[in-house]
Each structure stands twice: as structure tokens, then as C-alpha cells.
């Protein structure tokens, strides 16, 4: 997967690109931010292969950010201004997208990144990899990102506007929806069993009626009627009769 971040001082522009990223194979969205200083910190502390980057931002321009990361990540510029095109290519950006950005043009730019990585393979890129072993989530604390190892997740519970991720009895509240989180998790590793629960398949220890038992979890995990068929299909594939 190609780990990417989106950096733009306009939330509306970020929302459009998030929508596009979710429809694009190979892309794994690590983070979004309206603050280029925070973007620098993300690139310094996480594996970021690609940045979708606005140019005109307060405190630090997109051009300044490109120079600061010094080739650590590939860059696709997203801007409403065409006059920076020449300077951007001198900084070796992959592509230059003019707003309003359309999905076909976005996909074309991403394909350029894919081709470059295939032509110049490097250990830090693995396009063929389908699964990640960790995710980064935005917590209740503003500007704070937390790394969560997927094999440490006991279960995930929906809580109105938040999602609670339980790891070894510790609860982390994440401001997202169950649907969005479900789409980001590998279906080989996780399954939604109720409108309020997503569980790791490997930690299932038993089923009692409409209750699911998980390793090292005392909480009652309900199986919803709308999700039971998918769960039982997995169980049947492993069942000895």
C-alpha cells in the first residue's frame, strides 16, 4: 500500500480528496491536516510515501514544506494557482493538480506515482501488500495521533459520534464512524458482527446464541441479525462436522 496524507488549509478541499482516496486502489490514508507544521511532524514520525499538498497555506507554504521534507515523500500538488507549475517541477513533484480537481485527473496522478514506484522499487514501498499491521487514529486530544497495532485490538464499539477501540482492556476514543473504520480495516482480519461491534476474527473463541465470545474479553458482544450470515459463513469454512 502507498501511505498518503492530505495537507490543505481548507477543510472542504480535504474532504474532496478523502473521498477520492477511498475510491483509489493502493492508497492508504494515514492522516489529514490543515496545518503544514503538523504535516512535517507526521512525515518525521510516520511512514508517508505520498503527500497531496496545497501550495498557499499560512505559516509554511507547500513549496517550503517540499524543501523541508527533502525527498522523503513523493508529492502531488493540489492548488488553485497555475503560476507555480514551473517551480514545482524543479522541486521534482510527481504531478500538479489544479482545483477544482476531478476524480479522473486525480486517478491519473496517482497512476504516475504507482508507475514511478514500480520503476524504482525501494524497500520502503510495497504496492502489492494488501494489509497493514497498524493504523494511526485521531484521538479526543486535538492534534494528537495514536498508533494502534491491529493484532492488539480486542474489539471495536460504536458510541454515537465516536468509536471506542479496546486494546488489552484500554479504551481509546476515536472521532470517526463505524462505517469509515470498517472500510479501512482488512476484511481478512476483521468483521462487523453488529451495528455497534467490529471484532478481530482471530480472537473468536465461541458463539452462544446471539453472543460472541472473544479471547481475553469479558464484555458481551452481540451478534446482529443483519450481520449473522457473514459471520456464520466464516465459521462454516472452519467447522468440522
List keywords for this structure.
241 residues; alpha/beta; Rossmann fold; OB fold (Dihydrolipoamide Acetyltransferase, E2P); 5-stranded parallel sheet; 5-stranded antiparallel sheet; 7 helices; 15 strands; 29% helix; elongated
Name of the CATH architecture of the largest domain: 3-Layer(aba) Sandwich
Overall pLDDT score: 86
Helix content: 25-40%
Distance between the termini: 39 Å
Structural class label? alpha/beta
Describe this structure in words.
A hairpin with a 6-residue loop joins strand 14 and strand 15 (221-222). The chain has two domains: 2-119, 3-Layer(aba) Sandwich (Rossmann fold); 135-238, LytTr DNA-binding domain (OB fold (Dihydrolipoamide Acetyltransferase, E2P), Beta Barrel), CATH 2.40.50. The chain is 29% helix and 31% strand. The protein has helices at residues 11-22, 36-45, 62-69, 85-90, 103-119, 178-184, 228-238; strands spanning 2-7, 27-33, 50-53, 74-79, 95-98, 134-138, 145-149, 153-159, 162-167, 170-174, 190-194, 197-200, 204-208, 211-214, 221-222. It is elongated.
Amino acid at each position: 500500500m502507498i501511505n498518503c496524507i492530505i495537507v490543505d488549509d481548507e477543510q472542504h478541499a480535504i474532504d474532496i480528496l478523502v473521498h477520492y482516496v477511498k475510491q483509489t486502489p493502493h492508497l492508504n490514508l494515514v492522516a489529514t491536516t490543515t496545518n503544514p507544521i503538523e504535516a512535517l511532524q507526521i512525515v518525521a514520525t510516520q511512514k508517508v510515501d505520498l503527500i497531496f499538498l496545497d501550495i498557499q497555506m499560512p505559516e509554511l507554504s507547500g513549496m517550503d514544506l517540499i524543501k523541508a521534507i527533502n525527498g522523503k515523500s513523493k508529492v502531488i500538488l493540489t492548488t488553485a494557482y497555475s503560476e507555480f507549475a514551473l517551480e514545482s517541477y524543479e522541486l521534482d513533484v510527481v504531478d500538479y493538480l489544479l482545483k477544482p480537481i476531478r476524480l479522473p485527473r486525480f486517478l491519473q496522478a496517482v497512476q504516475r506515482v504507482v508507475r514511478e514506484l514500480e520503476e524504482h522499487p525501494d524497500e520502503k514501498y510495497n504496492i502489492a501488500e494488501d494489509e497493514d499491521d497498524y493504523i494511526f487514529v485521531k484521538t479526543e486530544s486535538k492534534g494528537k495521533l495514536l498508533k494502534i497495532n491491529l493484532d492488539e485490538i480486542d474489539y471495536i464499539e460504536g458510541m454515537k459520534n465516536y468509536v471506542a477501540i479496546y486494546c488489552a482492556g484500554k479504551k481509546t476514543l476515536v472521532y470517526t464512524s463505524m462505517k469509515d473504520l470498517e472500510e479501512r480495516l482488512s476484511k481478512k482480519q476483521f468483521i462487523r458482527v453488529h451495528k455497534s461491534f467490529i471484532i478481530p476474527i482471530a480472537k473468536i473463541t465461541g458463539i452462544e446464541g446471539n453472543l460472541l465470545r472473544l479471547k481475553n474479553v469479558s464484555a458481551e458482544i452481540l451478534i446482529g441479525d443483519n450481520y449473522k450470515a457473514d459471520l456464520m459463513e466464516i465459521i462454516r469454512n472452519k467447522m468440522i462436522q
